Design the sequence.
């Protein structure tokens, strides 16, 4: 927790969070206007379908999701935003953060508008047209989806016995259930539940299929643990039914040319075993380098399942494989390995160039001292192997070159292919 607090303080003081700080100022100003001018501010900034149709208040499609006329709920939404938004902006980048907020906000308000108009057309109940809808709950629900994607299995409040059971993967389902329950018992306005449900859905769609990582070029996130079915309780066969319906829709849309980028870029990412080891490498083969050994510790919010971290880890493993294979081919640099007559750490045959999974690496990339003591390697051999492994690690410049080479072919291929109809 102390490391996260230090990281958060440094994030607020840096230019990497300037967009989230600017939006925080907008939220505070709109909330104050709602408290000072009441109904006048609500008519001007909230989404009222009747006024939008008759007076062309088109700007309310944007301002409705940022304006909150409720004192308590508005303060709570602003506090949650101030805690989460800087972290997401620093992790994604300013442009991706702004696009996520803008797309989610617009999709939520447009969906609510058309649902209210359809409700009036079906029932001729005038409050469907003239009931004001506003609030930041939809975007905060979208942030909960982003937290589920990044942290999943981590507890929301570590160290507290009861709250320790609520993990980040439960946040979207928890918010939806609480908002619906409070609305049914009359403790929460009827506008909050639709905002939360629409915000959750559109955030998942955007993060699942459209958000592009600016560093690696990975589009979306097709991991099974981020599937739509995971947003529902695992009771009475609900998840298999949702998973089947979502698979049918995805397959149908993909057959007409959609989601080509997300499928292509996610196909090269490695899958993770239950023990956290990387299972799939670029170019085929398997390895056993630990996720913790290659993940960055500079950002305590970065998840091991983050597509950016996965892509960097994959490139590092491939670079190590190539360098070790090159070193092993040199007669003056044999790599001793216990039980291998050739004395090489690199296995022969179809899997040549891939590290043997039984190699006893420590997280620092050195051979543990107990290996030499057990008679597998002499101290001199252990020191020689450790030096060769250290020499095989790629530099930052080499990593940047590999990332550029990895994304350039995909960009060229996309430019050469005709656009999907």
Sequence:
């Amino acid at each position: 927790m102390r490391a996260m607090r230090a990281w958060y303080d440094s994030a607020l003081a840096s230019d990497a969070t300037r967009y989230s700080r600017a939006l925080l100022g907008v939220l505070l100003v709109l909330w104050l206007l709602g408290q000072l001018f009441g109904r006048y501010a609500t008519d001007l900034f909230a989404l009222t379908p009747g006024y939008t149709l008759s007076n062309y208040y088109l700007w309310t499609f944007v301002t409705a999701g940022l304006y909150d006329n409720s004192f308590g709920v508005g303060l709570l939404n602003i506090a949650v935003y101030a805690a989460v938004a800087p972290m997401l902006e620093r992790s994604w980048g300013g442009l991706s953060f702004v696009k996520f907020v803008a797309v989610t906000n617009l999709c939520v308000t447009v969906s609510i508008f058309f649902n209210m108009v359809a409700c009036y057309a079906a029932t001729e109940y005038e409050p469907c047209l003239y009931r004001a809808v506003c609030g930041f709950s939809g975007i905060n629900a979208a942030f909960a989806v982003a937290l589920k994607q990044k942290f999943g299995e981590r507890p929301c409040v570590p160290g507290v016995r009861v709250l320790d059971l609520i993990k980040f993967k439960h946040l979207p389902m928890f918010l939806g259930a609480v908002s619906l329950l409070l609305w049914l018992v009359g403790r929460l306005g009827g506008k909050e539940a639709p905002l939360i449900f629409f915000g959750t859905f559109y955030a998942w769609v955007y993060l699942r299929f459209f958000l592009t990582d600016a560093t690696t070029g990975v589009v979306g996130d097709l991991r099974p643990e981020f599937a739509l079915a995971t947003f529902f309780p695992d009771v009475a066969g609900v998840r298999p039914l949702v998973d089947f319906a979502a698979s049918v829709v995805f397959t149908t849309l993909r057959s007409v040319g959609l989601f080509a980028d997300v499928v292509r870029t996610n196909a090269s990412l490695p899958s993770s075993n239950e023990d956290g080891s990387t299972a799939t490498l670029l170019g085929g083969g398997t390895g056993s380098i630990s996720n913790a050994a290659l993940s960055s510790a500079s950002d305590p919010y970065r998840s091991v399942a983050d597509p950016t971290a996965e892509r960097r880890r994959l490139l590092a493993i491939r670079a190590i494989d190539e360098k070790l294979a090159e070193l092993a081919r040199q007669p003056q640099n044999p790599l001793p390995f216990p039980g291998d007559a050739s004395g090489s750490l690199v296995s022969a045959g179809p899997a040549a160039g891939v590290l043997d999974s039984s190699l006893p690496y420590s997280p620092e990339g050195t051979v543990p001292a107990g290996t030499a003591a057990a008679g597998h390697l002499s101290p001199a051999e252990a020191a020689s192997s450790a030096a060769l492994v250290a020499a095989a690690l790629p530099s930052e410049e080499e990593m940047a070159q590999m990332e550029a080479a990895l994304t350039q072919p995909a960009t060229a291929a996309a430019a050469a292919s005709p656009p999907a109809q």
